[in-house]
Amino acid sequence: MSCDSSINACPPCTDDPVINTSSENLDSDRFIFNIDLLGGGPQLNELFEQLGCFAWCWSEISQEDADLCAIIQAIQCANDAIRQPATGVGGFPIIGGQVPPLFFNTAQFCQFTCPDGATFGWTFPPNQVAARTLVEANRIAFSYACRYARLRKICITSTPDPACAGQAYTGRLEASGGTPFTTSQGQCPYLWQLVSGSLPTGLSLNQCTGAITGTPTAGGSFVFTVRATDSIGSYQQKVVTLNVIEFTTFSALPDASFGVPYSETLIVNPAGTYFFQFFSGSPPDWLSLNSSTGELTGTPDQLGDFIFTISVETSGGTRCTNEFTLSVVPPVPDPIEYWTMDEASGNRVGEIAGVLLVPQFGVPVFGVAGKVADAAEFINSAFPYTSLSTDFPFERTELANLGTGFTVCGWAQLTDAFQLPFEIGFYDSLLNQMGVAHISMNGGANHIQASGVDAASNAWTLTQTDAAPTPGDWFFFRFWFDAASTTVKLQINNGLIEESAPGLDYSAQPRGSIVIFPDSSFNPGLVMLVDELGIWMPPLTDDEADFVYNSGLGRHCCPFS
């Protein structure tokens, strides 16, 4: 069998035994191994073909089968040419009557890298190519391996974008290269499979299209491995990370307190770099959102409930939203009673919680300009007082628990040196006084004093000189009994706190009363002003009292305005 040198496919030809197998000389405008790089294979109903050194090779199986046929022909041509006389066409000289040896290739592996860094390789088996040198045999085998590695290379070219927890999602896996299934016959280009790991709960993979669809139920970063397989069994695998974004901050944000700086940072799972913004709804004007950190900040200046939607966006443009509610509430617990004094007139002082302060013995009160809006003016005469107690007709059952701890605070103004405006009394079931606390405001002696006796007849006295008021000036007083420490405490204008020795006992008192009166025994005609007076049980904390004090400005309280 001889070689046809006119097809330029046999030794001593410089080309490989199959047309254009050089991986360094890709001829994109021709069929390469009869495979159109754009079309992907022979035309419909045609055979795979390759031109050997003395005949055409056709195969119904694969292009590889046809190419190996051509290589076998090349080996046969080489053997035949070597054994021909020196004058033979394409033959080699026989030196010393010896036939030059043939060398068969070793296994050759060639690898290509996809844009994402994934690799795809193909190994040409040993002992398939014969040549005059091992280098030449391996060069041909390596070129063949590279050609097939390139033709069979599959790259997974795109991975799904992040999803949003609780929202319908459609993502897609895409691949290129290899020998896709024939789409014209209704087949999918590749077969997609989940090799390891798990998709987020609520999502599924379409094996035909590579689409990932559904509604994920929880946020997180989910890692799994997918495989794309083509029509001849070549495949590529890729580790995919699918992030499902979810606000882990509860939709009901922690309450904000009126007038108190507010801060709450929104937490997103998984952690990452996001862009936050108000998306819709009605966030309060005082509320700001840090677009980088997701921190909500501001100082509330209005009460109410606010509903708004915040979006979080990835650098790739995926946007997820969540609706939030925020309530602005008073920063102190509800008092058992509170009087603004704004309705003081004649025999009526006014109320917030429903109980009037009523002047006794026909002595009127007057509404005058106060610390906040109006105040109640008390004018001294013989035994006038305004009182609140659990006794009829001023029934207020909560006062029976004053011994478990309470706070009385408000604003007052001195107009003379001697006044005794407040008395807090405790009584047994027979109305015998079991304990009492007096708050005396003595401007002339430049101090404010609280004194009393507990149920066990233990006397105590507190003297506050740190911020003693001057007659004509408004001052804020806070007096409270702390049942936990068994002490009474006195504070003026949020200054130093005077505290009694521990061991006081005001428990088990079935009754209690609050009495407000100018002391007639010293200065008849003396005038006292009281504004924004409240009673809290249990005692206010320092922060709560500081809010009511409002940096010395005072404020309407409960409800706040």
Structure description:
Residues 1-45, 82-96, 346-354 and 390-395 have low confidence and may be disordered. This protein has 561 residues and is mainly β. Strands 24, 26, 27, 29, 34, 35, 36 and 38 form an 8-stranded antiparallel beta sheet that branches. A 7-stranded antiparallel beta sheet has the order 25-28-37-30-31-32-33, with no helix packed on it. A hairpin with a 4-residue loop joins strand 1 (48-51) and strand 2. 36% of the residues are buried. 8% of the residues lie in helices and 37% in strands. It has 3 helices and 38 strands. It has 4 domains: 5-151, no CATH class; 156-245, Immunoglobulins (Immunoglobulin-like); 248-329, Immunoglobulins (Immunoglobulin-like); 337-552, Jelly Rolls (Sandwich), CATH 2.60.120.200. It starts with 47 loop residues before the first strand and ends in a 12-residue tail after the last helix.
